[in-house]
Amino acid sequence: MGLKPNQRLPLMAMGMLSLLMALFGGVQRLGWDLPTLTVVLPANHGPLMVGAFLGTVIGLERAVALGTLWGFLGPLATGLGGLLLIAGVVPPLAQLLIVLGSLMLSLLFVAFLRRQFAWFTVIMLVGALSWLIGNLLWLMGHNIFVVVWWWMGFLLLTIAGERMELGRMLFISKLRQSQMIAAVVVAMLGIVITLLDIDTGVRILGAGMIAIAVWLGLNDIARRTVKQTGLTRFIAVNLLAGYVWLACCGVLLLLFGADFSGLRYDAVLHSFFLGFIFSMIFGHAPVIFPAVLGRGMLYRPAFYIHVVLLHLFLTVRVVGDLTVELLPRSVGGLLNALTLLVFVLNTVLAIRAHFVAERNVQAS
Ligand code: HEM
Fold this sequence. Notes:
The radius of gyration is 19 Å and the shape is globular. The relative contact order is 0.08. The longest helix is centred in the C-terminal third of the chain and has 38 residues, at 326-363. 81% of the residues lie in helices and 0% in strands. The protein contains 13 helices and no strands. It is mainly α. The chain binds protoporphyrin IX containing FE. Protoporphyrin IX containing FE binds at residues 23, 26-27, 29-30, 45-46, 49-50, 54, 144-145, 148, 261-262, 265-266, 269-270, 273-274, 277-278, 333, 336-337, 340. The site of protoporphyrin IX containing FE has 27 residues, from α1, α2, α6, α11 and α13.
């Protein structure tokens, strides 16, 4: 027994508030002169995005799938942690809540494994543990440029595991499964090595990312479904575009090694978080939002607007970063933030359109 759809709404709302505040802080960090909402927003941009927004949404989705009440403790903790990060009060408590959220997500995957053993669940569990370790390092006072690789590991393995899970339908051979497991091991090895030698570690992580991107590009069901129409094609287009950004991030890491701030750091982080992760979110949103909120969503071709804008402005930003041109970097970054607002708006409109269509059917 879990939470009813209406009871999940406040959790989703906390995650979305963290996203909006993180965007605000990110734009301020680019140097745009926005009013000060709270002084900590620019510094808390990364933790709000990864821990409080993505952590809450992923935790919520997994808790719904498990269907037990305790599963929702994770997204509750990260959602509340996000509120404290926004307000900038009691920082250790905010960090502790996000640590708790990642611990709960790890336990949730253990519960899935106890129900049924599967390699893709093991990969997702290792991803959750990567998030937990990163959060513990952050709680201990390590800089974000030290822990961010662990946070990347969380998202990378969550998606790799999830795509493998869907690949079951394609009857992926044992050999191909072991290729993916090998790529995941390389990526995780790189992340562990960052603790000893950050430069070598991130280069190995980059190699692992390239291997995972190539594997997904070759084996994902999206390669077939992209030839279909409507929502099915929309999802596939997003997945394939995301794999290209993942490979780009891997190449940048392999070439540059570790950076701790500045333009190359910006290019590496956002080709991963915006290019790869947000492509996954855009693609999965029409399926995940209805499942989590218990409200339907009407697919509309207008969804391609936020997709095209994301890739266009992210390219402008990353090219600006790599050519040390500050104007395209700042304008591209600002427009990235506005693109995510277009995505939220498009999602709300699609939920509303479904609601209106349903009401009309009932009335007729
Ligand atoms: C959409 C608009 C976004 C803008 C304008 C933005 C802006 C920035 C800027 C300016 C930095 C500092 C880079 C540097 O040190 O030079 C940064 C860092 C970072 N961003 Fe973003 N970002 C955006 C989206 C995202 C997303 C979607 C995520 C994650 C899902 C993310 C996660 C991070 C992380 C983890 C850092 C490192 C923070 C640190 O070292 O303190 N960003 N971002």
